[in-house]
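Complex record, four chains
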Amino acid sequence: MVRPNAGTKGVPRLDRETQILDIASEQFGTHGFAATSVATVADKAGISKPLIYNYFGSKEGLYEACLDRGGALLADEIERIARGEAVGIERGMATLAGMFTLLEPQPYLWRLFFDPTAPSTGAIADSINGYAERIGKLADEGVTELMRLAGNDDPLDISAMTAVWLGIVDSLMNWWMEHPEESAEQMMQRCMRLLTALFGGDSE
Amino acid sequence: MVRPNAGTKGVPRLDRETQILDIASEQFGTHGFAATSVATVADKAGISKPLIYNYFGSKEGLYEACLDRGGALLADEIERIARGEAVGIERGMATLAGMFTLLEPQPYLWRLFFDPTAPSTGAIADSINGYAERIGKLADEGVTELMRLAGNDDPLDISAMTAVWLGIVDSLMNWWMEHPEESAEQMMQRCMRLLTALFGGDSE
DNA sequence: TCATGGTAACTTACCCAAAGGTCATATCAG
DNA sequence: CTGATATGACCTTTGGGTAAGTTACCATGA
C-alpha cells in the first residue's frame, strides 16, 4: 500500500509540538474547549490526528499543555506587576497595561483560563484552577487593598468586586479580539479615557 | 409488547411545555447550549426525548423557545427602566436593581443571551441577536449618554464601554449564581457598596 | 349503554454523523 | 536495523434526530 507522506517530513518533535500548541491555543481560546476538535487542529497544522495523540496523549492533555505554556506567561506577568508599588485603581490599570502588552499577539490566550466549556473536574480542572487561582489570588489581593483604602473589608464584597474586576478584564479581551486592528498601546489609552469618563477627569 | 407508561400521564401540552422550558432554561443557562443534552432535559422532566422533539422540533427549537420566553421578560424590563429619568451611573444602577429583582428566582436566564457556545448562525443566532441587540442597544444608549456627560463621544470608546458594562452585569450574575443565598435586595446593596468604594462615597 | 373511531399524549427501539481515541504500518536518517 | 516521525483505517461513544407503535380519553351514533 502506498502512503505518500508517512514519516517523510522529518520535523523535530519540539518544533512540531510548538507549532501544534500555537494552533491549539488559538482554537481553544477562540472557540472554547468543547467546540474545538482535535481533527481540526491536526488539519490546520497540516498533520494527522494520531501524531497529536502521540505527542499529547489526549484532547485534555493537549489543552493542559496549552494552559501550562500560557498560564506561566500570564501569571508571571501579573505577579511581576503585583510586586510593583501601584495600589488601588492604579494597580488595576498597571495590570491591564501589562496584559495588553503581553497579549498583543494573542489576546485569546486569556480565555483559556476562563472557558466555561472546559471540563470542571479531573486533571484539567486542577491545572486550570492552579493558574486561575494564581491569577485570581493576585486580583483578590489588589481588590482587597483597593477596598481597604475605601474602608470596606467585607469578604463577600471583596469576592464580588474581584469577580467584577475579572469580568471587566474578560470583556476588554473579548472586545479586543473583535477589534484586532487595535494595538496594545491604543487599548491602554482607550481604557484611560474610559476611566476618565467614569471618574470625571481626576484619576491619579 | 408491553409498554407500561405510554400515553398514560395525560398532562396537557401547555403544562408540559412550561415544565420542559423551565428545566431547559435552567440547564442551558447553567451549563450552556453545547454542554446541555436533550436527553438530560427529558430525564429531569421525567419524560422521553421524542416528546420534546414532538413539541419543539429540535434542540435549537427548544433553545429558541427558552429565548423567547426569557428574552421578552428581560428586554421589557430594561426598556421600562430606560423610559425612566435616571441617567449616567444612576441609570446603570437602576437597571441593575431591575435585573436583580426580575432574576431573583432564576439568575441563569441572563446567560441564555450571552452563551458563547450557542450557534452563531441560523435561526437561533437571529433570535439571540434580536434580543441581545435589544438589550445591547439599550445598554449602548445608556452608555452613550454617560459618555456624553463626560464629554466623550468616540464611537469605539462607547462600544468598548458598553462591552465592559455588559461584562460587569454578566460577572455579577455569575457571582450571584455561585451565591444563591443572596436576595435581590442584598445584591443591590452590595453593588451600592462596591460603587461607593470605587467613587469614594458620594455617588448619590 | 356501549361499540367505534379519532386524537392527544407518550414511549421503545432504532438510525446516523461527529468526534475522541487506537492500531498496525510506512518512511527515512544514522 | 533501530528509533523517530508520520499516517490511513478503524473502533467506540455520544448525542441529535426519527419511525412506528401504545395508551387514554372523549365524542358520536345506535
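Note: Chain A has a mean pLDDT of 91.
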